[in-house]
Amino acid sequence: NDARTFLGIGCGKKETIAPAQFPAGAQVFVQSSSHNRKIPPNSFIVLEISSAPPAVAAPPPSPPASTSTISQTLGTSDVCMTGGHSLPADHIIFVVSPTQSQANGANGSKEAIKKAVMNVLKKAASQNFANVALPSIGSGRAGLDKGETAAWIIGAIAEYLEEASTAPATNQTIKEVCFCLYDDESLDAYRQGILAQEQAV
């Protein structure tokens, strides 16, 4: 029982003990049984641990939640945040993108995109983030028109910044929004959208 207490093992049941459980320099007395024919039953053997037990590797970090899990948990345009994991970012803000089938016409899509962008920026500002990398929400697999989506997202960013500048209590820390685009059509759409927004001011 003293050995079990030393090793943190409960009494009254058989246990399998790994060598790593013994501290370096410990002397372990092992009583043989009739199962070992080479050692007389009821004799004792002294083992000495000559090296420190191997370090136990820390478990790998949990992977980010899958987009399907997030979509089931959150509603359209809702957001949640995780750590950056293996990406070159400190944090990841997930947003559930509206789709053509979910949106009620162009106005419904526009409002859903606007709400999604606003929620992302508000979440980022609540964490005192200065930089946000933003994809073209809704114009990928969700199937929304790239030109319209670009105009909606740029307009939502401008509206957020304007509202934040006129509300003293708003915690506005965002200094830069970077668009992550993957094709020439999207790049042209955002260039035109930014130009149109500047001309409208």
Short summary of the structure?
The chain is of the alpha+beta class.
Describe the protein's architecture and organization:
The protein has 201 residues and is of the alpha+beta class. The protein has helices at 2-7, 67-73, 105-126, 146-166, 184-200; strands at residues 27-31, 44-48, 79-83, 91-95, 131-135, 176-180. The strands form three sheets. The chain has a two-stranded antiparallel ribbon with strand order 1-2. The protein has a two-stranded antiparallel ribbon with strand order 3-4. A two-stranded parallel ribbon has the order 5-6. It starts with a helix and ends with a helix.
- The computed structural class is alpha+beta
Helical fraction: 25-40%
Backbone CA Rg: 30 Å
Main sheet overview = 2 strands, antiparallel
Alpha-carbon distance between the termini?
Answer: 81 Å
Indicate the mean pLDDT.
Answer: 76
Could you give the count of β-strands? 6
The largest sheet has its strands arranged as 1-2
N-to-C SSE series? Answer: HEEHEEHEHEH
Structure characteristics:
elongated, alpha+beta, two-stranded antiparallel ribbon, 36% helix, 6 strands, 201 residues, single chain, 5 helices
How are the elements arranged and paired?
Layout: H1 2-7, E1 27-31, E2 44-48, H2 67-73, E3 79-83, E4 91-95, H3 105-126, E5 131-135, H4 146-166, E6 176-180, H5 184-200
Parallel strand pairs: 5-6
Antiparallel strand pairs: 1-2, 3-4
Helix pairs in contact: 3-4, 4-5
